[in-house]
Amino acid sequence: MNRLRRVSWTTVVPLLALVLLAITWGRGRELAPPVVAVVALVLGGTVLAAVHHAEIVALRVGEPYGSLVLAVAVTVIEVALIVTMMASGGPETASLARDTVFAAVMITTNGIVGLSLLLGGRKYGMTLFNSEGSGAALATVATLATMSLVLPTFTTSQPGPEFSSPQLIFAALASLALYAVFVLTQTVRHRDFFLPVTADGTVEEEAHAEPPSGRTTLISLGLLLVALLAVVGLAKVESPAIESGVEAVGFPPSFVGVVIALLVLLPETLAAGRAALKNRVQTSLNLGYGSAIASIGLTIPAIAIASIWMEGPLVLGLGPLQMVLLGLTVVVSVLTVVPGRATRLQGSVHLVLLAAFLFLAINP
């Protein structure tokens, strides 16, 4: 009975979200506060429904494909939100892509990873993971972040922290190529690097429940697509309220990007925490670093294409404060990943870095 209720809930909510989207589309700034609250509630439920269906698809294909499915699904939401908000926001949203992608990198590498290590360390004392796969993923994150978010601050072809058109095309192609190579490495050539390991270093296959049937998987895939469409549309409807809320509490406009990243990454954070409590920290790291790679590797090419018809500048370069936080995160992450094991101390360090990022995003 519980299973039927769960399936029914995750089936109804995406369809309800589509109906609500049809009613509210194009009226974001005219909606009354109670309606905005209802949209936010349905939006949150649809995000969770999307993750549920992504997990069913992932259960069918196995690990590390499961982490990849969830990471790509959430990143599609993020990319669509950024593009739609920038397309309608004008020059005020010139730095939205940078703010959101940087927030996603900090939330995944410090928030998801830190929470997973803390939960796993508290329950099991020591968490074990495959340093080869996690190290390769971290190296990819660092390279993508540096090329896309740091280099624009220092290039001279275009005034300000922006890429020139040729530089943006190169960054987009390089990001897409690195993402493709990472996916190939994770799923084909060196899949064992991203599977859990035992105390003696032996790689073990991910333990799953019985895979769902092909029919169930196809239904979940269809509902996942519906949920993603609804999330993108409702977030667009909700975006004026987000911007007004950030302005009302006196936070910097760049905090809108942080809110978007927190919204779209919440489901992955929950999934990573559940995996850590089951002593599957490798799955948690796959989710964290995989999401960071997908966030940059898919967002930058999408923004490059969208910039063809979008007016105004495209600010990608980070400021000195953000670059210091990014550099410290990379150094700490290397020290965490290289040993292949960690305690709750490492998790706490990463969570403090996340707290520093959030505090300084409010009080730069």
UniProtKB/TrEMBL annotation:
Membrane topology of this protein: Multi-pass membrane protein
Name of one Pfam family that matches = Na_Ca_ex
Query: Predominant location of this chain?
Result: membrane
Chain ranges passing through the membrane: 7-25, 31-53, 65-88, 100-121, 133-155, 167-185, 218-235, 255-277, 289-309, 315-338, 345-362
Superkingdom of this protein's organism: Bacteria
Domain Sodium/calcium exchanger membrane region: residue ranges = 36-187, 220-362
Keywords recorded for this protein, A-Z: Membrane, Transmembrane, Transmembrane helix
The keyword Nuclease is annotated on this UniProt entry: no
InterPro entries, per database record: Alkaline_pH_Ca-Antiporter (IPR052946), NaCa_Exmemb (IPR004837)
Localization terms from the record: Membrane
Q: Tell whether Ubl conjugation is among the UniProt keywords.
A: no
The identity of this protein, by name, is: Calcium:proton antiporter
- Please report the organism this UniProt entry assigns to the protein: Tenggerimyces flavus
